[in-house]
Amino acid sequence: MSTMDLTVTVGVDGSEASLAAADWAAREALLRDRPLRVLHALPLMPHLLPSWSRPARPSGDLLHEVRHVLAVRHPQLPVRTDEVHDAVTSALVAAGEDAELLVLGARGSGGFPELRVGSTALHIAARAGCPTVLLPVEEPGAHPREHVVVGLDARRPAEAALHFALLAARRYGLPLRVVHAGAGPAVVGAGERRYGEAALLARVLEPWKAAHSGVEVVEDTAGGAPGQVLVEASAKARLLVVGRRAADGFGVLGPVAHAVLHHAACPVAVVPEA
């Protein structure tokens, strides 16, 4: 499949979170000039499911409703709806093979109300072959969305995540804040070391800034635990981007990705490295 045939794909299950994800994905598809695929997975043997986890309405009704809402809100967007008979996780990971971007609500219709990120979302973020965006349970707060944020360890830069973040910042017309996630804790007397970290980050970013001269890049080596720093940065971010390394093991998210997925105040993109 050529890159021109790739879609923005969103998984829906009838929950409010998944319907919000469909609207976010539609706006993203328009920015990327890509068609939108709306996917709903049906259990292979629904009669074996406990009553509380069975679909509340027929799949066809759900997809018809989503298509109608999207046609009203985004009439110029090509939308395709599909239902597949497979486990949700398997269906969405497979869908990611033909997608430029996969979009999900962080928590679907299952689980308990206090759960911020569901097991399905974590499973897919850890395994999808394409970048995956998870939308938080809570609506974004009143803070202005001033930039795109990417977490980067300048000693082992996640190049796919950085490239994704630069393109996102360009599409949104926002600066990119690069948080050096390996800068360590902010301690008294660490000024010289922090200067060295800033110089390291500047060297890493120099060719990227030259290749994306239209994007303002803000370099941040603020100390502290990487996950905490990124979660704090998410309060004013339109999108937070983190990488997923193959070295972490297939189907495994690192501690920083776990922290931001559970606590970020904006959508989070998990980008697999080659």
What can you tell me about this protein's structure?
The protein has 274 residues and is of the alpha/beta class. 37% of the residues lie in helices and 21% in strands. It contains 8 helices and 10 strands. A 10-stranded mixed sheet has the order 3-2-1-4-5-10-9-6-7-8, with helices on both faces. It is globular, with a radius of gyration of 19 Å. The relative contact order is 0.14. Mean pLDDT is 85; it is low at 47-57 and 111-115.
Q: Would you spell out the secondary-structure blueprint of this structure?
A:
Elements: E1 7-11, H1 16-32, E2 36-42, H2 59-73, E3 79-85, H3 88-95, E4 99-105, H4 119-127, E5 132-135, E6 147-152, H5 159-172, E7 176-180, H6 191-211, E8 217-220, H7 226-233, E9 237-244, H8 255-263, E10 268-272
Parallel strand pairs: 1-2, 1-4, 2-3, 4-5, 6-7, 6-9, 7-8, 9-10
Antiparallel strand pairs: 5-10
